[in-house]
Design brief:
Elements lengths: L3 H6 L19 H8 L4 H4 L4 H15 L3 H12 L9 H13 L4 H27 L1
């Protein structure tokens, strides 16, 4: 049968990196809107506006394509304050809060997160239209 210790010493063939074929990396803004922001609780835990905005900010920093800067300008012009010093998250929260109305804190959070997704979608659509 052979020496069992010899099989332990035999080099094993090298394997490539392990890739989970079921996890698709977030690649672009459309994927972020269609997948991540459609179910934010899967990515940020309790889907509060602050957590979702932090996730979006991190994504924007990683992609580094200027989208969030243009989104901030778009929101500022939309609010009638093109010279506003506020960041995109604060501008979006103000618009979302005014549109969310009254209700329990959970419902208001869910509506502000949904409104953020709607604002980003509307902005992306306007950018795509302008590019045509």
């Amino acid at each position: 049968m052979g020496d069992p210790a010899a099989t332990l010493r035999e080099p094993r063939p090298a394997r490539g990196p392990t890739v989970n074929r079921y996890v698709r990396p977030v690649r672009d803004w459309d994927y972020l809107l269609d997948v991540v922001l459609a179910r934010p609780g899967m990515y940020v835990g309790l889907p509060s506006f602050e957590r979702v905005a932090a996730f979006v900010e991190g994504f924007g920093t990683a992609v580094d394509d200027g989208t969030l800067n243009r989104f901030r300008l778009w929101l500022a012009q939309r609010s009638g304050q093109p010279q506003s010093p506020l960041g995109w998250a604060e501008l979006a929260l103000r618009e979302s809060s005014s549109a969310s109305g009254a209700g329990s804190e959970e419902n208001v959070e869910a509506r502000t997160v949904a409104r953020l997704r709607a604002l980003l979608s509307e902005f992306r659509a306007s950018e795509k239209d302008a590019a045509r």
